[in-house]
Amino acid sequence: MSTHAVDRLWPDPASDLDLDEAFADLHLPPSPAGRPLVGLNMVTTLDGRAQLGGRAEGLSGRADRRLMQLYRTGYDAVGSGAGTLRADDFYSHLPSDLAARRVAAGRPPQPTALLIGGSGEIPTDRRWFAHADQPRILVIGAGAPVPDVSDGTEVLAAPTTTPQPDWLLGELAKRGIGSLLLEGGPTTNAAFLAADAIDELYWTVGARLLGTDALPMIGPIPGGSPWANAPREGQLVSVHRSGDELFLRYRFG
Ligand SMILES: NC(=O)c1ccc[n+]([C@@H]2O[C@H](COP(=O)([O-])OP(=O)(O)OC[C@H]3O[C@@H](n4cnc5c(N)ncnc54)[C@H](OP(=O)(O)O)[C@@H]3O)[C@@H](O)[C@H]2O)c1
User: Fold this and answer.
1) Which atom of ligand 1 has the smallest separation from the CA of 215?
2) According to CATH, what is the number of the domain 5-12+33-212+234-251?
3) What pTM does this model have?
4) Do strands 235-242 and 5-10 pair parallel, antiparallel, or not at all (unpaired)?
């Protein structure tokens, strides 16, 4: 039971629901053949910006921070690009109540943490590396220096300088990972959209306007988007409201 209340606006409108109960089971669809299901979780302002002062913090409120953990609870792995870890000292390790919820559902207590680097520096001093009880996979590009992580993190070198989503999802499937929650940033999201590997979108709309040139939820796809003239169509799954913020869920498929 959390201290946050939400209203479900669609489907089946209902007021004053407990956030933890409203998102207790995500009812994820089955994984596509040969790869994990990919959900994308992002927060933006009303004018569509995904950064505030170069970071993700401050774009949404406390209920959304708990909701991030609830989404993580439903997935086998939680990943993001190295640019996000360079900007934010984040980690996906779950608090004990949600770890217990996973165990009760017959799953490992923690989702596998995934960090997708390329050729740049990996900030190994971050708290992402600090949780010994969480399996961690660090992906680096071909030829990139192998970071000094002697803490149980599996380092996986890609066959290309920039790891490609299709290859990465195949590697995760080989490890028995059936679902990946991607948490940005916009550059990594663009690579997954280019590969047509976004199946679900969890979008928190913070009730704020910025008017800056900060990155949007999904950056422009290098070389042009395959969807530029035929947009990827989503289906609305649910809409919740917490105060002035909206929690939207879409499915693509
Ligand atoms: N609002 C939100 O919900 C939210 C969520 C997450 C992040 N953010 C914000 O977004 C910003 C970070 O986003 P970002 O777009 O700069 O970085 P990012 O997407 O987190 O990471 C980009 C890096 O990922 C590596 N990479 C691995 N595979 C790749 C591929 N196939 N294509 C491209 N890059 C690949 C590259 O690392 P190398 O540089 O090593 O080559 C690349 O520079 C921060 O300001 C963060 O606060 C916001």
Assistant:
1) 10
2) 3.40.430.10
3) 0.98
4) antiparallel
